[in-house]
Amino acid sequence: MEIRVPTDNGKPLYVRLHDEIRAQILSGALGQGARLPSTRRLAEELKISRTTVEEAYAFLAEDGLVHIRPGQGAFIGCAGISVEAAEQMRWEDKLTPAVLRIHQYRQQEGHIEHGPRGVISFTSLAPDHQSFAVDAFRKALNDVLVREGGVLLNYGYVRGYEPLRRYLHEYLSGKGVRMDGQQILIVDGFRQGLELTCRALVREGDLVLCENPTYNGAIGVLRTLGAQIIPIEMDEEGIAPEPLEQALRMKPRLLYTVPTYQNPTGLNMSVERRRQVVALCARYGVPIVEDGFNEELRFRGDAYPSLKAMDASGIVIYIGSFSKVLFPGLRVGWVVAPDALFTYLTDAKNNADIHTGLLQQAGLYEFLARGHLEKHLRFCRRIYRERMEALETALKRYFGDYVSFVPGQGGFCQWVAFPEGIRVRDYMDKALEKGVAFVPGDVFYPLGGGENRMRLGFSRLTPEKIDEGVRILAQVFER
Ligand SMILES: Cc1ncc(COP(=O)(O)O)c(C=O)c1O
Fold first, then answer.
1. Which segment of 83-87, 114-118, 150-154 scores lowest on mean pLDDT?
2. Omega of the bond prior to 70 within 30 degrees of 0, cis?
3. Per-residue pLDDT tens for 254-285?
4. Nearest CA to ligand 1 atom 7
5. Residue whose C-alpha is closest to residue 336's, from 199, 172, 214
6. Across the chain, which distance is largest between two alpha carbons, in Å?
7. What span, in angstroms and rounded, lies between the C-alpha atoms of 322 and 460?
8. pTM here?
9. Ligand 1 centre from 387 Cα, in Å?
């Protein structure tokens, strides 16, 4: 038995000694019933105080690993058992089709190279953390913790923190959503909201409609569930009514749509088209899952009502998120669903993770209740509009007519079309070598396409970096 004191890792000496002996007991290196060295001997050998050894032994006794018999010494209780190395488990043979589907999709998508540090990366749609009102959030979190105490560190309700649910109820009513007969479920960001909703409504092999192109995160969720995705073409007003109606005749389970500042196209569906989409889906009895993830990020043009606000027959399930308007790291989003569906979504949420973290919900609520969202939005709109304009100006300046794009109205990205026949993926490595990363358009097409498209996210780049990045990209494309 050789006991050494592990090097200083910031923990007190007696804890380090305890950890060392515990590791030896649990690995089977110290056998059951064996007697530990006396405290006097070990203290001398290790040149530490006897009290430290006594404290370590007492700690081991508290763990139930050692019995201290007064006058006799310390004896090891149930020791770990060292086992022969067995044949390795072949985990690949045990995986389910669902997890293999998501893995396969992630592999394809994984070809998005974000590049190492220092690269001018147009790949992200995250907000710029430099814009975060950290102090105000810290104060809100602190105050709510002082006020509510340990309750916030205990289990909460599945459906979410009540003050936050009430806040959202009022907020949505203020945006014209009829909340009677509707309930709010707080979830871990949009992605979980979509997962829970689709898990409740979509069976393996079911048809699900979406825009073509659409958010790759949603494609991943739908693929995992084994849905057959039917992408519907868009025109300049949004999802096109004729192909939508044709697809609705095939009795799909639902339509997933991002009407406002869509990812990846940035398109803002026209009001008339919104009305048409809701009316068509209502006529065919097909639910709509509306992704409202960034509808507050309006930098130009009018604000349009959500589909949920136009929904007289209760067919729209609205999923919102604080990931773009505030802080994605909090993982807080919400689902607005009709009463009849809410119970099932709540069951699914309970199964998944019991509830969304209470502390972040409470901190967020306090931050919102103090009016910080409005302040933050005013500030964000200014900085992100500047970045959006910088990108449009740089694209015109360095690419001229070679590429086309529609000037954006909101959101964090610009969708750029290169001439037919150009495969933007072929330019990715060269762009990375020169220090620029972008997302190739094909990842947003569930059934292929978009090889000549590129998504450029501008939210985390200053106007100067945007200009430099686009200048480099133009060199890469030999413009
Ligand atoms: C279309 C779309 N919906 C939702 C989200 C936000 O997801 P979450 O709230 O899970 O962070 C994103 C993020 O990029 C997105 O692009």
1. 83-87
2. no
3. 999 999 999 999 999 999 999 999 999 999 99
4. 190
5. 172
6. 91
7. 17
8. 0.92
9. 20
Cα of 263 from ligand 1 centre, angstroms: 9
* Cα separations in angstroms, 202 against 186, 207, 344, 354: 21, 8, 13, 22
CA 21/CA 135 separation, integer angstroms: 44
Helices (H), 66-161: 97-109, 134-148
**Token pair of 401 as six digits:** 């007519």
pLDDT at residue 212 in the model: 98
DSSP state of 34: P
The DSSP-derived string for 406-435 is: PPPSBSSEEEEEPPTT--GGGGHHHHHHTT
Q: Specify the ligand 1 atom closest to the Cα of 291.
A: 3
Q: How many CB atoms lie within 10 A of CB 61?
A: 14
How buried is residue 422: exposed, middle or buried, by Cβ count under 10 Å (0-12/13-18/19+)? middle
391 C-beta closer than 6 A to ligand 1: no
Q: How far apart are CA 304 and CA 292, in angstroms?
A: 12
pLDDT of residue 84 exceeding 80, the answer is no
What pLDDT score was predicted for residue 41? 95
**Contact assessment for residue 76 and residue 30, using Cβ atoms and an 8 Å cutoff:** yes
Residues 12 and 459: their CA atoms lie apart, in Å, by 45
